């Protein structure tokens, strides 16, 4: 049997009160619809069919080419939305799994159970239900005296008695494909001007076709998102899920409640994460690192045995054993070689600090290359911008830059050169040469006791 998947994502999500289509609101850093696609993909050999409408172009841009798109031009309800997928699936799929793009916490396992239940019961339709105290505006599952599902009633149309029902329609359905395509065009038009997918249940029952319900025991899985309050609840649930996964794979979190890790982040074993840490985007962190407290790392690659302490690291690379902080900022294009050290109040942008470079105190290094083992004294600044253009600074291996040095780029300081404190370097300084002054002048070769030591 070939299973087709339809994911509904055409609604605006009016209750979000947002210009952004609801399914693009991010959860743990990713548009929520991507979770539904990811959960369903392992179940099908066909690309999932995504029904788009409101903000279709934006949704396409965010999701990419891994799904088949069909457009629902007017949002005439969930039943009408599924019908738009018919040309994409009819004749290709013998059964169809339908889910909504606003339920990002659903797992593949649960979807599989719904598909399985329909097959075993040879039912026209299987649906997922959840028993929960907070009905969240969900449709209620009405059962007969024999316990069989009779129909779904939407909250707005429910009687007081029906509203008291605590078994809710989660919004996941597996259907026999032929039956689905035959009956979708026959859904009644509701007074709201919509065709409800949920009315299929009553139709199947009327035809004496079997309907089967799978009850999930985990209400967080079916946290559908209709409002920003729901979004925050789902975010918290997703955060707990992500943090648990990393703890189970060997990462220590001092306080998981204040540790925010986006979905695509990767972390090595025996790394310890301290509170108030935010790991974002495509960040990768190696083993045995100490990260945080009060740290933000975004789209960066951190090697093994690194430390990032109360700092911000964006678009940067830190090789094994390097460390940053407290209160420093690595900006895009920064690269710290193995064992390099950036201490307090440092900023590095579009610059490579070679292995073992020390830059301990309030310095700015931008558009630069610093050779292995060089020492950048307190308050050193690469003056990389002349008001119009950016220029590069090259510092040779094991060079010693005295405190308070201004390096006016473009400029090159040679290997093992020594620059005296307070210099303004406006011209290239050769290897193993001592220079100082304003502007800095060459004073002869470096002597034995100059330039080593911190
Ligand atoms: C729906 C169910 C309800 C269930 C709940 C679970 C119906 C009629 N009701 O209600 O029984 O308890 O989900 O979350 O199905 N969409 C379209 N085109 C449309 C309308 C909706 O693509 O014309 C999409 C939306 O983008 C959304 C999904 O379908 O992703 C669900 O729509 P929504 O309006 O959120 O339905 P609910 O009121 O939550
Ligand atoms: Ca919904």
Task: Label the CATH architecture of the largest domain.
Answer: Alpha-Beta Complex
**Strand content range:** 25-35%
CATH superfamily of the largest domain: Spore Coat Polysaccharide Biosynthesis Protein SpsA, Chain A
- What's the rounded overall pLDDT mean? 96
Give the proportion of residues in helices. 10-25%
Instruction: Say how many strands there are.
Output: 40
Oligomer state equals single chain
Write down the CATH topology of the largest domain: Spore Coat Polysaccharide Biosynthesis Protein SpsA, Chain A
The number of helical elements comes to 9
Shape: elongated
Distance between the termini: 71 Å
Small molecules held by this entry: uridine-diphosphate-N-acetylglucosamine, calcium ion
Structurally, how many domains make up the residues?
2
Radius of gyration: 30 Å
| Main beta-sheet strand count, sense and barrel state | 14 strands, parallel
Task: Kindly provide the name of the CATH class of the largest domain.
Answer: Alpha Beta
Structural class: alpha/beta
Low-confidence stretches: none
What labels describe this entry?
454 residues; 2 domains; 14-stranded parallel beta sheet; 18% helix; single chain; UDP N-Acetylglucosamine Acyltransferase, domain 1; Spore Coat Polysaccharide Biosynthesis Protein SpsA, Chain A; binds uridine-diphosphate-N-acetylglucosamine; alpha/beta; 9 helices
Topology:
Blueprint lengths: L2 E7 L16 E2 L2 E2 H9 L8 E4 L3 H8 L4 E4 L6 H6 L2 H4 L5 E6 L7 H14 L3 E7 L8 E4 L5 E5 L6 H4 L3 E10 H7 L15 H8 L4 E6 L11 H21 L3 E2 L5 E3 L4 E2 L4 E2 L3 E4 L3 E2 L4 E2 L3 E4 L2 E2 L4 E2 L3 E3 L2 E2 L4 E2 L4 E2 L4 E2 L4 E4 L2 E7 L4 E4 L2 E7 L4 E2 L4 E3 L9 E3 L4 E2 L4 E3 L2 E3 L4 E2 L4 E2 L7 E4 L4 E5 L9
Parallel strand pairs: 1-4, 1-6, 4-5, 7-11, 12-15, 13-16, 14-17, 15-18, 16-19, 17-20, 18-21, 19-22, 20-23, 21-24, 22-25, 23-26, 24-27, 25-28, 26-28, 27-29, 28-30, 29-31, 30-33, 31-34, 32-35, 33-36, 34-37, 35-38, 37-39
Antiparallel strand pairs: 2-3, 6-10, 7-10, 8-9, 39-40
Bound molecules: uridine-diphosphate-N-acetylglucosamine and calcium ion.
